[in-house]
Each structure stands twice: as C-alpha cells, then as structure tokens.
C-alpha cells in the first residue's frame, strides 16, 4: 500500500475528502438571546390554554384571602402587608407551584431529552420557561393589587412599582420552582414541594410580620418572595423610603440570579441522566 500526498490527489478526490470532513463537523450552537426568545415564545403559546384557568384560580384565591382578612385587619401597616402579600401570592402560585410541577413532569416523561437534542444553551431553556410562566402572573397580580387597595382604602399612587416587583420576585420564585422540579426524584414529590413552597408564601407573606413569633420571622426572611412583599408594602406610605424599596428589590434580583443558576445546573444534571 502506497501513501500519496494530498497535494497530488485529483480535484474530485480532494473535494470528496473535504465534503466528508465537513459532514463530520457539527453546526455552531445557537446564541443565548435568540434561543431564549424562541423557548419563551414556544412555552408561552404552549401554556396559554392550559394555564389561564389556573391563573384565574390564583387570582380568585388571593382576592378571597383579601376579603377574609378584611374582617380581621382594619388598616395601617397590617393592611399594607396583607395587600402586598396577596398580590405577590399570585406570582408564587404560578412561578413556584406550577413551574415545579411542569419541570417535574418534564423530567419524568422524558421531555428533557427533546431539549437536550436542541443546540440551545441550558440557561435558555430554564429562563425561557420561567419567563413564560411568570408572564401569566401580570394580570392577576395587578387585579389583586387594585382590588386590595380599594378594599382597604390604600392609595394607588405607586402601583407602578409592580413593574419591578413582578419580574424580580417572579425570577426568584421561578428559579426556585424550576430547581425543585428538576431535583425531585419523582413528579409527585415535585408537586408536593411546589405546593409547600406556595403555602409558605401564603402563610409568611400575607400574615402581618408583627404578629409572628421570632422563629417564624427568621423563616420569613429566608423566603425570596418576602422581599418583593416588603418592597411593595413600603410604597403605600405617604412618603415611601425608596432606599429600602430599592434594597428589597436588589435582594430579589440577587436571589433570582442565584436560584436561576441553581436551576440551570439542575437542568444539566437531569438532562444527562
């Protein structure tokens, strides 16, 4: 057998070698932003029909809590805490509870294999799904906040702060919900963890902190939604301390980045198994 240098090969042979080597090369991975937008749109269209009824449930649940608490709380800081907590509870119901169930079922039925075959970054899958689920919380949160302010006689002047509270609290809770769903060994356990997280947001976020024992207050400080509730509740005053509002929102943002990073790691871990 003789060895012939590549320079003396006929043009057709060189072309065949080039085509063979080119066929073996994989295409470049999709960029982060286009992948994120594509996953977000796909999740938004997929979940629109299935999740809208659950969004009504979340909104009616929060409105029912406001009506119930109206017979217990008259006004003041306690009313501010109830309205803010009930509004953020809509975010917790969708972003934490439903997202944990979604990723738990996706892992159980092999849906992660589909995403693993796509040339998209893992962070785009997690962020796209989290963003789509968090988007469903906007109407319910606004309706709950307006209803609560009217019911308790609170001002609507700074209701625009929800434009920052919803995405930041939603990011923190969505990352936590996605991580719970991806790390749970069974979908039933993911559903249970998501419901427990939503129950914690209900009990620790809606009830006034002044009436809680010290141990419960410490647990409340560990819940990501607490800082969204505090930021929203501070804006009901005549002269809000915007430094504290920005500080609470910054904590939400930091927790959101950390929780989404954990969810991305959990996605990689679940996708290779």
Q: Could you characterize what this model shows?
A:
With 273 residues, the chain is mainly α. The protein is built from eleven helices and no strands. α10 packs antiparallel against α11. The longest helix is centred in the N-terminal third of the chain and has 39 residues, at 32-70. The protein is elongated, with a radius of gyration of 24 Å. Residues 1-27 have low confidence and may be disordered.
Measured by DSSP, the beta-strand proportion falls in under 5%
The SSE order reads HHHHHHHHHHH
Quote the distance from N terminus to C terminus.
Answer: 46 Å
Low-confidence stretches at least 5 residues in length (pLDDT < 50)? Answer: 1-27
* Radius of gyration, CA atoms, in whole angstroms: 24 Å
Tell me, what's the shape?
elongated
**pLDDT average, as an integer?**
82
Concise structural overview:
The protein is mainly α. The chain has helices at 11-24, 32-70, 76-108, 111-117, 122-135, 137-152, 162-183, 187-206, 214-222, 225-234, 242-271.
Topology (SSEs and partners):
Elements: H1 11-24, H2 32-70, H3 76-108, H4 111-117, H5 122-135, H6 137-152, H7 162-183, H8 187-206, H9 214-222, H10 225-234, H11 242-271
């Amino acid at each position: 057998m003789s060895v012939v240098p590549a320079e003396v090969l006929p043009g057709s042979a060189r072309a065949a070698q080039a085509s063979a080597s080119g066929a073996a090369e994989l295409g470049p991975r999709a960029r982060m932003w286009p992948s994120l937008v594509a996953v977000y749109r796909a999740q938004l269209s997929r979940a629109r029909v299935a999740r809208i009824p659950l969004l009504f449930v979340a909104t009616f649940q929060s409105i029912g809590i406001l009506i119930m608490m109206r017979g217990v709380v008259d006004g003041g800081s306690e009313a501010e805490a109830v309205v803010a907590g009930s509004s953020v509870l809509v975010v917790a119901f969708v972003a934490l509870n439903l997202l944990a169930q979604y990723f738990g079922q996706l892992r159980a039925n092999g849906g992660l294999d589909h995403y693993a075959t796509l040339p998209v970054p893992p962070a785009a899958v997690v962020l796209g799904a989290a963003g789509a689920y968090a988007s469903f919380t906007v109407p319910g949160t606004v309706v709950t906040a307006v209803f609560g302010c009217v019911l308790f006689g609170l001002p609507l002047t700074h209701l625009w702060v929800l434009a920052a509270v919803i995405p930041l609290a939603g990011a923190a809770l969505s990352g936590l919900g996605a991580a719970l769903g991806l790390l749970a060994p069974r979908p039933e356990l993911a559903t249970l963890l998501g419901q427990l997280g939503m129950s914690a947001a209900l009990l620790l976020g809606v009830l006034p902190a002044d009436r809680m024992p010290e141990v419960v207050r410490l647990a409340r400080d560990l819940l990501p939604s607490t800082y969204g509730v505090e930021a929203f509740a501070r804006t009901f005053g005549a002269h809000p301390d915007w430094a504290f509002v920005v500080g609470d929102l910054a904590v939400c943002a930091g927790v959101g980045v950390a929780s989404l990073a954990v969810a991305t790691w959990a996605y990689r871990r679940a996708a290779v198994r």
